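Dear Dr. H.,

I hope your travels went smoothly. While you were away I took the liberty of generating a structure for the chain from your last submission, since the lab meeting agenda had it listed for discussion. I wanted you to have the full record in hand beforehand rather than looking at slides cold. The sequence, exactly as received, is reproduced here:
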Amino acid sequence: MKISLLNSSPRHNGNTAYATQQLTKSIEEYTTHSIESIKVCDLNVSGCTACDGCIANNGVCVIKDDTQYILDKISEADMVVFLVPVYWWSIPAQLKAVIDKFYSVQSTFKSQQKKIGVITIGANDTSDKQYSLISDQFTCISDFLGWEKIFDLSFCAYERDDLQNSQNSNCQFSSIHQYFI
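The corresponding predicted structure, in token form, is as follows:
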């Protein structure tokens, strides 16, 4: 199985980076899957302008940026894991720009039976509404594309090393490979 991890945090050494590292470690230790980690915020993906140029251009966005690169990586993967810091009750703008570009390849994506996982990390307690808002968004995307959301985990972490210092979080990461077997 080919797995793409989409880290959508602009922080290079924050909690989402730690979650990406721990997820990679667990998958590598317990499976033989191929893993590619992509830092969404290091890409140049512009917002969709609703020009429909992609429709006339066989699903290729007419804006020259990293859109085609990231959409190809997602298309090549059997499973995509979205690692998402909470930004104002939602996902970061950089990830939203990538997801909006799904429009250009929705027919292709609908024909691919992918699995997805979602890991959301925010400052508030995991019972806060922000986590369900993000979860529901990924459920809608999965349902529309015919993809299967196989896990959806939320963590409370604000300070840079909160996740790393959380015994509960580390316990969950050590057993996360179960979703990939």
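Two observations you may find useful: The chain has seven helices and five strands. The chain has one domain: 2-180.

With kind regards,
E. W.
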